[in-house]
Amino acid sequence: MRIAQIAPLHEAVPPQFYGGTERVVSYLTDALVDLGHEVTLFASGDSHTKATLEAIWPHALRLDPSIRDAIAPHMVLLERVRRIAHEFDVLHSHLDYLPFSLFSQLDVPFVTTLHGRLDLPELQAVFSAFPKAPVISISNSQRLPMPQANWLNTIYHGLPENMLVPIRRKEPEYLAFLGRICPEKGIEATIKIATESGLPLKIAAKVDKADHAYFKTTIEPLLYLPNIEFVGEITEAQKPWFLSGARALLFPIDWSEPFGLVMIEAMACGTPVIAFNRGSVPEVIDHGVTGYICEDVHGAVCAVRRIDELSRTEIRAQFERRFSAKMMAQNYVDVFETLLQGVKHPVLRRAAAG
Asked: What region holds the Glycosyltransferase subfamily 4-like N-terminal domain (predicted)?
């Protein structure tokens, strides 16, 4: 199958540091190639992939301070795809709703994986205007604000099985936070859980420009508390050591996270996750097996005290059963094949569309 993978240009594929969507696109693209498909990745020129790279912009937009309008490079991206769309069996977009209008006019079947939040009021009009645009959710929870969308399937994210593996270390002694510093990620609750548990906390996190003021005024003063260490943003290569050395990953989110890639990254390292019951958490964490699902800080503190009841070997095994990149890719192939079966011939497609 000839597959076009269309990635955002904000980060390279995969990103050097933080970047959930581009990271998933990377894992999926390489896994599709491993399954024997002919894949072209539309992405920034500093991307690395097993597929054929169609470089749209020289560098990731986040690394180019001269870029003030991020939509402009994405318009170039969409036009490049449009011009050679006939060379593919299916177009798979990761650009949210941006391609709906253009791709709906093409004879090539397309599908969009929605990676972000859908509870913004202004999105209602967009999805109501394109009720036939086929979309994939990354959790069932993500769908709730948008029941009118043309959902084809829910496909959970996956990781290459050998990318993050448990590393034998001395007895894990700290709690970990990995991700981004912002109010909805629950960093204040994380610090409170660690403080009340009496365990050290290591924070490996990115601070976006939009959250810099929040970090300086609210979070930075808390970093002077005893046993709180701010590591900063870490690379993919640093994650196994960081996560394997943690007694648990804390994930006390304060919003309906559509997926939460860091949860399965921890599971890949055999590290249990203590998370608040929001968004996709109940779909990803098997309570009492791969971690604990809690309602508040008090519940999380109690979960920390029970963390040794969980088997790190079983956590890794559950990751392999549920969240491998190969399984993710095969689930997408099933969707692509369904799309192709429904659109056998361009003339018939146009006739069916009226």
From this structure: 18-119
